[in-house]
Amino acid sequence: MNLLNFSLPEWFWVAFNLLVLIIVLRQILWKRVFKVLDERQNVVAKTVQDSEEAESLRAEMEQLRSKLDKELEAKTVEQMQEARTRAGKEFDRIVADAEAKAAMIVSAAKTKAQQERNAIFVEMKGQVATTAVDAVGMLLRENMDSERNRRLLEDFLSEGDMSA
């Protein structure tokens, strides 16, 4: 049998079978294939839309992060300046306290030195009086009471203090 020599009825049956096959495939398979293709196209469109929304959100988040970074930096600079100001004030307060304490210490030292000076002066006065009484007693060899001599010398010295 020659494959290329078809008769008209054979051609008719081949065409008929082909047409039936196309109709059956169209009724059964085409709808399902197009339905799957439509669903896939919808999924792809939804994915594209979601990715565009995600990109938009990413851009917004990037802008927000940038804005927050700038605000944080500004706030950090402000807090650093505030801390420096507080530290300067605290430094000034500590220096002022130290100066006040130093002034009190100097004043107390001056007072103590003056008191010691006065005590030394009184002691020297007594020693001078004793020495003078002894010297005068030796010079006069008088039978005077040494207590009386001391009082006379102290009176003399105190009169000398008043006149000075």
Describe the structure.
The structure is a single chain. The protein is mainly α and 164 residues long. It has one domain (8-163). 92% of the residues lie in helices and 0% in strands. The protein has helices at 8-140, 146-163. The mean pLDDT is 85.
Key words describing this protein structure:
164 residues, mainly alpha, 0% strand
Structure in a nutshell:
This protein is an all-alpha fold. The chain has two helices and no strands.
Write down the Rg.
61 Å
Number of domains: 1
The overall pLDDT, averaged over residues, is 85
Distance between the termini: 167 Å
Encode the helix/strand succession as letters: HH
Please give the number of β-strands.
0
Structural class: mainly alpha
> What does the main sheet amount to?
none
What is the general shape? Answer: rod-shaped
Q: What is the count of helical runs? A: 2
Parts with pLDDT < 50 across at least 5 consecutive residues = none
